[in-house]
Amino acid sequence: MTIKKRKTCELDIIDLAYGGKGLAKPDGFPVFVDRCVPGDTVLVKITKKKKSWAEGKLINIITPSSLRQEGRCRYCLYCGGCKWQQIPYHTQLAYKKQHVAQSLAHIGRLSKVPVLDVIPSDHVYAYRNKMEFSCSAKRWLMPEELADETISKDLGIGLHVPGTFDQVIDILQCEIMPDLGNRILAHVREFVKTSGLPAYHLRHHTGFWRFVMLRHSVAYDQWMVNIVTRDKNLSIVTTLAHELAETFPEITAIVNNITDAKSGVSMGKEELLLHGRDVITERLGRFAFEISANSFFQTNTRACEKLYDIVAQYSGLTGEQTVLDLYSGTGTIPIWLSDRAAQVTGIEIIDAAVADARKNARLNQIENCRFLQGDIRQVLPKLEQKPDVVVIDPPRVGMHKDVVAQVTALRPDTIVYVSCNPATLARDLELLSSVYAVQKVQPVDMFPHTYHIESVALLTAR
Ligand SMILES: C[S@@+](CC[C@H](N)C(=O)[O-])C[C@H]1O[C@@H](n2cnc3c(N)ncnc32)[C@H](O)[C@@H]1O
What we know:
Blueprint: E1 8-16, E2 22-24, E3 31-33, E4 41-49, E5 54-63, H1 89-106, E6 130-136, E7 139-140, E8 156-160, E9 168-170, H2 180-193, E10 209-217, E11 222-229, H3 234-247, E12 251-258, E13 270-276, E14 279-284, E15 287-292, H4 301-315, E16 322-326, H5 332-337, E17 343-348, H6 351-363, E18 369-373, H7 376-379, E19 389-392, H8 401-410, E20 414-419, H9 422-432, E21 436-444, E22 454-461
Helix pairs in contact: 1-9
The structure holds S-adenosylmethionine.
S-adenosylmethionine (SAM) is lined by residues 296, 298, 327-330, 332-333, 347-350, 353, 375-376, 393-395.
């Protein structure tokens, strides 16, 4: 079969690629198609054609795969959030394990490293403790809404449609956050509609309402609402905050972040406290954490505990060792390990995260954790003590190669590498494997219905 741009063709989907797309291989030539399930026969329009692969857009499913199931969410065929809802959860886990193993083998040339079965998330719906919904002056209409001329298109509060940067699906029911979040969102939507102030226009950079961010504390069933606006208008946001606080006693924190930045970030240049406190308290195991609107915190609380349990187990701590935690964020890993180590040092680049980490250590009366602020490349060479164990949890891009060299020069007995990206995990493990034996990799699922997968690797000095 000849694959040509803009041509349509019938394809058999045989696999799922990392990134979540279905993979067909007509005459051995890889074609990636979004929102397909292995076993589907589909009609596809080729949208991109390169020398060794192509990409296509699904036109329609000719014969559905026997694997297919109904997604619970009514938007799941259009929304960019959880595209794997059509695949049973245990099959999602099998593909995630396969992706980790394939990355290790193909990118890291580490095909012999055992990859364990994925530890599942206990909850596959209502698992996210944070959702950020965009307010847009351009609402995207669902197919069944297209013929309804009474629907106004000038307000959508929800999630983006992939491939459009300014259009938002008006999400009435998001299945991956606890249901009260949907009721809070509905209240905000009604208020915004009658507020007399327009939603933000992502092309023109005009309008008032920008984002509604919700955070939930699983341990205490507390909610935080962060209303992000372009300008300051204390009277209108205070009225909204009063209404929300009166209607939902579970809301213990309401803040207003204000930002006119053109990039789509919800972090305000200024934050106003409107109700209660500016943080919510969450627990991981026996530790408490105060989380502010802009703090980083793992988004699946219970799965995060499972992840950190593996980190603790792989660290092999007996109470005597010194631990270095690279990319320590708000200090959750150092705090989790604090009662099994002599001392834990975290290094993190973001000031606010380091301040949160120190505050959280104090909150838990922990005295053997310290946090150093700065770029790891600059801070590591100044470290005065050789650690016994190094934990590494970098962002998606993985480690800088200088940092890999700095870590191997420190020669810790054990390295525990936590990764949210199998490709950079494989690349970095290959670099480390000249000096360290990669014993095993344990994937942990924090993000059901997406292709994303977290992994923990155990490395020991050769
Ligand atoms: C994946 S997060 C890890 C967060 C934390 N371990 C947790 O579980 O919550 C990666 C962190 O690395 C930090 N970071 C990124 N580049 C850095 C650098 N060059 N030096 C220090 N920290 C960095 C980011 O700010 C972020 O907090």
